Amino acid sequence: MQTPPDRHEYPAHWEADVVLRDGGTARIRPIAADDADRLVSFYEQVSAESKYYRFFAPYPRLSAKDVHRFTHHDFVDRVGLAATVGGEFIATVRYDRIAADGRPASAPADEAEVAFLVQDAHQGRGVASALLEHVAAVARERGIRRFAAEVLPANTKMIKVFTDAGYQQKRSFEDGVVRLEFDLEPTDRSLAVQRAREQRAEARSVARLLTPGSVAVVGAGRTPGGVGRSILENLRDAGFTGRLYAVNGALQEKELAGVPAHRSMRDIGEPVDLAVIAVPAGRVPEAVAECGEHGVQGLVVVSAGYAESGPEGRERQRELVRQARTYGMRLIGPNAFGVINTSPRTRLNASLAPQMPRTGRIGLFAQSGAIGIALLSRLHRRGGGVTGVTGVSTFVSSGNRADVSGNDVLQYWYDDPDTDVALMYLESIGNPRKFTRLARRTAAAKPLVVVQGARHGGAAPQGHAVRATRLPHATVSALLRQAGVIRVDTITELVDAGLLLARQPLPAGPRVAILGNSESLGLLTYDACLAQGLRPLPPRDLTTGASAEDFRAALAHALADDACDAVVVTAIPAVGERSAADAALAEALRSASAAAPAKPVLVVHVELGGLAEALSAAAGTAPAAGTAPDATTRTGTTPDGITSAAGPAPRSAAVLPEAESAEAQSRLIPAYPAAERAVRALAEAVKYGQWRQEAAEPGRVPEYEDIDEKGAAEQIGRLLVDGEGGTTAEAGQTEPGAAVPTTDPGPAEDARTLGPDETCALLARYGIDVRRALPAPTPEEAAAAARNLGYPVALKTTAPHLRHRADLGGVRLDLADEEQLRRAYAELTSLFGEPEELRPVVQAMAPRGVDTVVRAVIDPAAGAVLSFGLAGAASELLGDTAHRLIPVTDRDAASLVRSIRTAPLLFGWRGSAPADVAALEELLLRLSRLVDDHPEVVSVSLEPVVVAPRGLSVLGASVRLAPPPARDDLGPRTLPVY
Description:
Layout: E1 16-19, E2 25-30, H1 36-44, H2 48-55, H3 64-71, E3 78-85, E4 88-98, E5 111-118, H4 127-141, E6 146-151, H5 156-163, E7 169-174, E8 177-183, H6 188-210, E9 214-218, H7 227-238, E10 243-247, E11 255-256, E12 259-262, E13 274-277, H8 284-294, E14 298-301, H9 311-326, E15 330-332, E16 338-341, E17 348-351, E18 359-366, H10 369-380, H11 382-385, E19 392-397, H12 406-414, E20 421-426, H13 432-443, E21 448-452, H14 473-482, E22 486-488, H15 491-503, E23 511-516, H16 519-531, E24 535-536, E25 540-541, H17 548-560, E26 566-571, H18 579-595, E27 601-605, H19 609-620, E28 634-637, E29 643-647, H20 658-665, E30 671-672, H21 675-695, H22 709-722, E31 752-753, H23 756-764, E32 773-775, H24 779-789, E33 793-797, E34 811-815, H25 818-832, H26 835-838, E35 840-844, E36 850-859, E37 863-870, H27 873-878, E38 881-885, H28 890-898, H29 917-933, E39 937-947, E40 952-954, E41 957-961
Parallel strand pairs: 5-6, 9-10, 9-13, 10-12, 13-14, 14-15, 18-19, 18-20, 20-21, 21-22, 23-24, 23-25, 23-26, 26-27, 27-30
Antiparallel strand pairs: 1-2, 2-3, 3-4, 4-5, 6-8, 7-8, 11-12, 16-17, 16-19, 28-29, 31-41, 32-35, 33-34, 33-35, 36-37, 36-39, 37-38, 39-40, 39-41
Helix pairs in contact: 6-12, 8-9, 10-15, 12-13, 15-21, 16-21, 17-18, 18-19, 24-25, 28-29
C-alpha cells in the first residue's frame, strides 16, 4: 500500500470488495466523518450482548462524543474500517496506536489496540476475518508491527477470529480479560489460512451461481425466439429441479411457457437465488436494483452493450459491477452466453445452448460465447471424431468477465467432486499471478487444459480490462506449464487432450507401444511419437487380416509389458460390411484395456464410423441394473466432418446411479481420426504426468546464513527515500536497460537505476559478488586501473551500441602488461571513436568458462520472473531462454539450467570441461531470494556470468528499484476492479 502525502487525506486505495464465507460480497472502506448516521443505525441493530462484549459493560447507545470519535480519524494513528452491504454498515474495526504504557501515541510507536463489532445478523459470515486481514495491511503500511486486543473470555467467536488468523501471538489473562498480542508480519501459516479462506469463499460464490434452488429470467418475452424466452425454455426443457419464474414488466399473463410469470421481482413471494437478466443495457440497472432488494444471490447478465461497445459501455460495465456488489451479489457477464450444471440434483441450463449437454466429468470455461458453443458441440459430438460418451459437469461462459473470472471457477472446480478435468478457453487473464497460483494447486489434483486466444494480437479483446504484460507469449506459456497447466494451441487440441485425460489414467512415462492392422499407419504414429518427444517401441503390424481376437491378444500383451507406459492402437476398415466386426473389435479393445486399467489406451482410426460408435456403445449404452433395455444412440457429424455416435440421451440418477455411470464411463477408449492428434494428446498427458510426479516433491527455497536481508531492506529504503544511486548502472559496467526489451519492466515514474557502487553493495548482501570494473577515460587512467586490479586485464567499451558485442571488436582480453593495454586502447579509439563516446573500462580477467545471462524482472501482470540463457547473439536470436516464477526452489533452479536447448555446453559438450553448474544454481537461488524478499527490486540483470569449471564470475550487473505496488497477491483478499 502506498502512503498518501497528507496523513488526513481519505485513503481511497484502502477500499476493496471482498467475498465472504457464504459466497456473498461486502465492501470494505475507511470510515469517514460523513458516516455518522450510518454508524448510529448500525449500532442500533447490534444486540445488547454484542455491545457488552465490545465495551465490557452495558452500552445501549453511542453518545455524540462516541460518534465523533469513531468517525473522525487521521488515517495514521487512528483508523476505522467498515464492511458495508447495500451502502449500510454490517461490521466495523478500528485501531489506535499506543505506547508501551497503553496510552495514545504516534510513530515511532509500533503497537496498536484493535477492536471489532459485527452486526449479529452477519456473524458467522467471515466478516471479522476479512476485516482483520485489511486492517492488518493498513497498520503495516502505517508502520505498526503489532496488534493488542482485550476480549472477554465469553466472547469465544472473537477470540477464535484472532487465534485462527495464523499470526504469531501471545495470550495472557488479567482482571477477568483475555489479552492477545500478535505480530502483523505475515507468516506461512497466516498466508495459508488466508488462501484457504479465499478458496472456500470464492468457490462458494460460484456454487451459488451454479447450484441455485430457484431461478428468475428477467426479460422473458411472450414471443418465442427472443434471448430471454429462449433461456427460459432451455431451463424448463433441461428439467431444472428448482423453482423457475419468468419476469417481464409487460406481462399480463400469470404463466409463460408453462412457467409462473410476474411483472416484477417484487411480485415473487419466495426467495430467488439466481437471476438471468436479458433486457436492453439501459434497463439493466433497474433490474439489478430489483434483484438486490429482493435478496437475489447472483446474476447472469446476457445483455450486450457494455465494454465491448466502447468507452461509454466500459463505464456502464463498471457501474454494473459496483451496483451488483453493493447488494452483495456476484455476476457472470455481461455479454455472457450463460451457465450450465448437468448434475441430476440441479439440471441447470441457464444459457443459450438449446440442448443440455450430457452429464460428465469435464468442466468447461470460455470467455467467448462462440467458442463456448464450439466446445459444447465438439464434446457432444465426440470433439470432431474423438469417441466415447464423455459429458460435461459444469459450463461457464463469462462474456466480458467483469466480475466472475476463470480464477473464481478454478476455485470452485478445485474441490468439486463432479469435475475430474478442467478445460478453459481464455482470451485474457485478469490476475495472472493468482491464476498461476490457483492453477498450480488445481493441477496437483486434476488436469487443467488451457487454450489462450488473442495470443498474438498485442491487446486484450474489447470488453476485457486487464493489466498489460511485457512478456512474450512463449514466456507466458512456459510459466503456465511450470504451474502444471497443459497448454494447447487450438480448440481441437483442447478437446482431444481433455477427453483422454477424463477417461484414461496418466501414463507413467514416455514409452509407447504401437499396434494395428496397417503398417503405414503404424509408421506414421511412430514418427508422430518421435516428433512429440515420446519414446515409441517398434510398431507391431497385425496385418490387414487381423481379427478382433488378434487385437485383444496383442493389446493385452502390450499392456502387460513393463517396458510400455501407453498403447496406441491403429485400425483401418475391413472391406465390406463392417458393423459386426467393428462391434467385436471395440469389445475386444475394451476387454483388454479393462484388464490393465493402469495404462492409457488410444485408438487411431481411419474413417471407421462404425468403430467409433461401437467404442462408445461398448461402455456407454449397456443397460444398467433397473434400466430399460431399449436405450438408443444417435449419430451426428462433427464440425470436422467425422461421423460419430452422439451417445445416449441423459438419464436421471434414479435410472442410472452415479457410481455405476462413472464405472461405465471410466472404460471409454478415446478414438482419433489422425495419428498426430492422438499422439499430441498423449504427449501432453505424459508431460502432465511427469509434472505431477515432480510436484509431489516440489523442492525447497534454501536458507543462506550469509544473506543480510535486514541490511538490504535498509539500503533499499534509503535509496528510494533519498534518491541516491544515480541513473546509470555500471556496476561491472552494465548499462541501463540491460534486461532484454521483452522482460524489462520499462520506465516507471518513481523507478531508479542504481549506480555501480550501490549495485555491488546490494548484491553483495545476498552473496552475489560482481567483479570490479574501473572507468578508463584516458590511457593513463586505464594503466592505473590495471595496476590496481592486477594483470592480466580486459579492456571493454560500455557504450550501449557496443556492449556485449564481442563480435564487433569492442572487447580486448588477456592484456598481460601496460604496453598491450595501451596498444589496445589506441586500437579501440581509432576504430570506434573518442573515449567519451566509448566509455571504456578495465576489468580483471575472469577464469575461462561458459558465458551466461541471468535476469529477474517484475512483470506487471505475471509477477516476479527469473530468466536464464547463454550469452551471445545465437541464443538471443533463437530465443533460447528459460523462465521460472519467483520464488525459485532448488528443483526449479536445476530444471531452469537444463531446460535451454544449449544446456549441453554447460555439461562438457564435445569433450570440453564441464561448468560449475552447482555454483550457477546457487546464484539463481540467491537472486530469486533478493527479488522475493524485496518487492522494490523491479529488475536485475547479470550479464555476463562466466561459469568456469570451478566457480563463476559476475562481470556486469544492473539493478532497478521502485516503490512496491499498493497491493499484490500477498495482500489481503480483495476482488479485482477492471
